[in-house]
Amino acid sequence: MTIKHVRTWELERYLLSELPSQRMEEIDRLLEENPELKSQLIRLQQSNDEILEKLPAARIIPNIQRRHETEKAQVKKKTRSVGVKRLLYASPVLASALIILFIVLFSPRGDMSQDTRIKGTSPLDPTKPHILVHRKSDADTELLQNGDRANEGDLLQLAYVPAGQSYGVIFSIDGKGLVTLHFPENQTDSTRLQPGERVLLPSAYELDDAPEFERFFFITSQTEIHAGRILEKARSLARIPGRAKTEILELPYAYDQYTTLIVKGE
């Protein structure tokens, strides 16, 4: 493997420990073997630090939102014809910008002025696994609680609290009965969770026009989870949206599950 196989967005996620464990180990080896790659990583870290120090959240957020609107329009043109449910922000430029945005919002170095607030926050309980749903709107970032309302077009950022669990799968079911996988990125990827008090997922998420609700599920276990099998059970539950809004998956005893329901509409 050569340096050209490590993309900039992978280095961004490497810095956040948000790559699959196997890829993290591969990049560890490459950094030892390639001084040029190590220098690139150092420059990237320095660049991120400079952004956090020089640009407060109140200045970063409008730029990211403008970029978000531009790329959203471009991607929607491409996705209408292929039936994509919604836009998951996976483009390297915008994904990196969104990661920096949420670093700013949750880092003690971030400029949390009167113009930029995190509403609805409360001390995390690191002893209990759960999923966190943050919504960005105007100058506020809000932690949504179970049963809170949201609307089409709201930009969400998901995070999880592993609380000692080793593996997990995160997906959502909406009022149309559609299932969206959020973690891992692909159902064949490892479901290994990253340690930490709160782990942000690498892609932001925009709510589409599905009616009534969006319900997020976090399935955890101490052993590797087959994401494809979890999704099969999720699709079975989703066939009757009314059940998906209130019931949980039928899973073996070794699995635990946690949910957050977001109600759609005013």
Structure description:
The chain is of the alpha+beta class and 266 residues long. The protein has two domains: 1-54, no CATH class; 115-264, no CATH class. The chain contains seven helices and eleven strands. Strands 1, 2, 3, 5, 8 and 9 form a six-stranded mixed β-sheet that branches. Strands 4-11-10-6-7 form a five-stranded mixed β-sheet, covered by helices on one side. The longest helix is centred in the N-terminal third of the chain and has 23 residues, at 57-79. The chain is globular. The termini are far apart.
Secondary-structure blueprint:
Blueprint: H1 8-15, H2 21-33, H3 35-54, H4 57-79, H5 92-106, E1 117-119, E2 130-137, E3 140-144, E4 149-150, E5 155-161, E6 167-174, E7 179-183, E8 199-200, E9 205-206, E10 213-221, H6 227-238, H7 241-244, E11 256-264
Parallel strand pairs: 1-3, 4-11
Antiparallel strand pairs: 2-3, 2-5, 5-8, 5-9, 6-7, 6-10, 10-11
Helix pairs in contact: 1-5, 2-3, 4-5
Number of helices: 7
Helix percentage: 25-40%
Count the beta strands.
Answer: 11
* Structural class computed from helices and strand pairing: alpha+beta
Task: Please describe the biggest sheet, giving its number of strands, its sense, and whether it closes into a barrel.
Answer: 6 strands, mixed
Quick structural gist:
This protein is α+β, with helices and mostly antiparallel strands and 266 residues long. 36% of the residues lie in helices and 23% in strands. The protein is globular.
What key phrases describe this protein's structure?
266 residues; 2 domains; single chain; alpha+beta
